C-alpha cells in the first residue's frame, strides 16, 4: 500500500511539473515579434517620446524642449512665452526686420525636457551651449504627436528559447519610450493585441497586429506634420532626390542586407533617368514618382540584375532634405521590405 501511495504521489508530482512547464512554454509568433532596433520600435519611440520639435523656434533643437513659461529676448524685444500659441510672437519678432540678428536669448534659469521625459535646469547660456554640443545629430524625423496609444498595453519579452521570459505592463508614454530605449537590440518583444489607439481625428481605433500598428503610425505621419504646420519640409521629394548623390543606408528584406549595397552612389535626374555607380561599374536606370489611390509611391528600375532587390514600387513613408524612407509590402509572401536613401 505504501509503495502504491509513493508511486501515486510521484505520478502526481510529475503531472504537476509537466503542466507547469507546458504553461511556461509559450512559443512566440515570429510575425508578431520585433526588436528595439526595428522599424516598428522606431515608430513607437517617436509616438511615445516627449515632444521636442514643436518649440524649435525657441531652441533650434529637436533634442529637447523648453519648459513653459519662459521669457526670451529677440531683437531687443522681451517676450513672455506662456503657452504654445506664444511661439508665433517669437516668430513675428524674428521676421520683423531683415537687418537684425534674430537670436533668441533666454532669461535664465530655464528648464529643458528631453525626449525621455527627464528634465534639467540650465543656469546660463554656457549650460545651453554644453547641452547643444552633447545632443545627437538630428535626423529630421520628429515626434508623431497627433495620435495616442491608449494605455495600459502589455508587452511580452522572450528569452533565447523563444519562450516568454517576462511580461511588462506599460502605463504611459514615458514608460514605453524608456522601456524601448533601454532594451537590448537582440531581445524579442511582442505587443499583446488587440490594443486601442486614438487617431488624429480623436477617434479610437482597434489594432490587432504589428502590421496594422505600423501602418497606422506611418499613415498618421502626414497628419501630424500638418498639425504642426509644415511637416518634414516644404520641398518636394522630386526636388530633393534630384539634388546631389545618394547611398543606401538601410535595406531590409527578411534580414538586414544593407551591406550588399555598400559602395554604390545613386544619382536621380529630373528627366526620370538614374545612375548607380560603384567603382568603375555604372548601372543605368529609371525612376518615377506617382500617386496610387492617395498613396505616394516611387518606382525604381535598373539595368542588369545587380540591383534587382530594390527594383520595386516603393511607398514613400517620409523624407527630409537628406534622407528618404521607403517601404514595400510583397504581393507574394506578404513580407515587408524597407529601403532608406541618405544623401552623401
Automatic annotation (TrEMBL):
Domain of life of the source: Bacteria
Organism: Flavobacterium capsici
Name under which the protein is recorded: Lipocalin-like domain-containing protein
